[in-house]
Hints:
By secondary structure, the protein is of the alpha/beta class.
Amino acid sequence: MTVALVTCSGISNTGKLTTQAAILLMQRRPGHYVWMHAKQSAATLEAEIGDAEKVIVIDGCTDCCAKKKLSASRLAPDCHIIATDLGIEKKGMGDVQYDEIEKVVRAVMDTEASS
């Protein structure tokens, strides 16, 4: 099964966190995940998601930039994870902590296990 990860990949710590979590997931399970960031056009997102069996959106905060962009492509996520909803504080340009990356990675993996 291929899982598409769509991340906001913003410039804040929580945005950078979404990118780092996606990269770590791909390293842990090569070939299982494909990743794209919401900075791409809606048409490009739709094309890159292709025939993935599941789409997981990972947003850094409640602005939900990745989910909004995905919605513009007429695709709906199977799961939507928001880093700040996991208790991670948005700190502007602050550094991302490894435990925060792990928290998001665990949320993605837990979502997959429950479906």
